[in-house]
Amino acid sequence: MRERLPVRVARAVARVVVPVACPGCGREDVRWCEACVAAWWEDPWRAEHDAARLDIVARPPLPVWVVAPLSGGAHGMIAGWKDGGRRDLDGLFADAAERLGRRVAPAVASVPGPWVVVPAPARRASTRRRGEDLPLLLARAVARGLAQGGIRADVRPALAIGAGEQRRRSAGDRWRAMRSAVTVQASLPPGSPVLIVDDVVTTGATLAACVAALEGVGSPVVAALALAAVERVAGDAHAGLW
């Protein structure tokens, strides 16, 4: 049905004042489209094998569950959320993280708690620019999902990261710098299993640095969760920790 003239005029004026488009595909006049949102409803899959810098000497591989590949529309939505000022996506991604926590809960339920959910550290400058600590937002959502799956977990933002721009560095430079940049700034319950939450996984350098810092003070890291990873491992996702 054709819109009435006043409605079309109002919509045109609104687009000029506050332009709206799907951050995933650029479709105009929608906050996000169904096709781009669909990726965040998929079952989680294991991404640790694609994170080249995640390996830690003398340590079993860290299970890493993610929801979507960091490509196409999903990449666009993440970019709009992190660097495009799209705070209206906070709720959508919090819901995706909550579902992720609920779905992963059965895979970690055999590990005795009490569990601790630790967000990956966000740089202060990034948090100020975005107006939100995104890993902390996701960590709280994951804890809600774990609770729905029968696992009680406290959220502890225990990690800090030093200042410095990472995105223009090579992968090797980022890995070397990250290892010394992440530190533990708050105490955790001794021996409690830890689950790290981050927004995306690219090389795995950030997660590896978080693991090294936490296990260096006696907090065993059992798994990590993130919204997206650079590339999906071929084949079906598998459940279980090891």
From TrEMBL:
Domain Phosphoribosyltransferase: 185-228
Key words of the record: Glycosyltransferase, Transferase
An example molecular function term from Gene Ontology annotations: glycosyltransferase activity
PANTHER family per the UniProt record, alphabetical: DNA UTILIZATION PROTEIN YHGH
Sequence similarity: Belongs to the ComF/GntX family.
Protein name, entry field: Phosphoribosyltransferase family protein
Organism taxonomic ancestry: Bacteria, Bacillati, Actinomycetota, Actinomycetes, Micrococcales
